[in-house]
Amino acid sequence: MRLEVIFRCSKGTAIDFNYNHYLSNIITEATEKVAADYDQKKSQSLHTFSQLYLKDYSISNGKMISGSEQIQWYISSPDKIFLETIVKGLTISNYVYIGNSLLEFSQARLLEHPQFYDEMDFTCMSPITIAHAAGGGKEQYSSIDGDFFGENLRQDLVRKHYIIHERFPKNENLSFYFDTNYMKKKSRPSRLINYDGKKIMGYMVPFKVIGSKELIEVGYHAGFGNKNDHGFGMVKVWHKNRS
């Protein structure tokens, strides 16, 4: 399921580019405000969220300066109750902070999910990252043009499918085809996000997936790749101009 959240702010509100950890905190605080009678542990680990969408903004001193009074944000999870809990929590608090900037919760609505096929095109609403342990307890981030980037995405989706459904998918095959023309046109298809002092590298590149509809649906709802609950791996369906 997917939730669209709308905040209101004053024109001229300044928002730091590295806001992911603030958004994570908003989700945590919203769910904690609601006395839910179900175990949220699995839902909280399987969700993702988008970057913020400002209708009009300028850039000054490393911050986005809002030129409008509305900001859109999207949260996705396979658990509808988890998303409804977030809405209840936002309704209770009414206001949230992103750094020192105050935003007013305006409204939220659950969006219909798309029809899933065994071949689909997506664009990124937040960067996709693949992380693995390196020496000294550090993490290393895989390159999108590496040999195992797509395979690691597939294996991660199989793992998530098992957590959600408590079974493996009937079809575990899935291939990723990232838009090489897009990457050639972009000087920096990668994004380096400072998550509360920790640098995380991901990619905002359109891609095609071919294979298991079950795994594609998991990726749409729970996110592709790692660190989804940090605001990575959210996508939307890309309807190419096929004329």
TrEMBL record:
The keyword RNA-binding applies. The keyword tRNA processing does not apply. CDD domains: Cas6_I-like (cd21140). It comes from the Bacteria. InterPro entries: Cas_Cas6_C, CRISPR-assoc_prot_Cas6, CRISPR-assoc_prot_Cas6_N_sf. GO terms for biological process: defense response to virus. Residues 113-237 form the CRISPR associated protein Cas6 C-terminal domain. One of its GO terms (molecular function) is RNA binding. Keywords: Antiviral defense, RNA-binding. PANTHER family: CRISPR-ASSOCIATED ENDORIBONUCLEASE CAS6 1 (PTHR36984). Belongs to the CRISPR-associated protein Cas6/Cse3/CasE family. CRISPR (clustered regularly interspaced short palindromic repeat), is an adaptive immune system that provides protection against mobile genetic elements (viruses, transposable elements and conjugative plasmids). CRISPR clusters contain sequences complementary to antecedent mobile elements and target invading nucleic acids. CRISPR clusters are transcribed and processed into CRISPR RNA (crRNA). This is CRISPR-associated endoribonuclease. The gene is cas6.
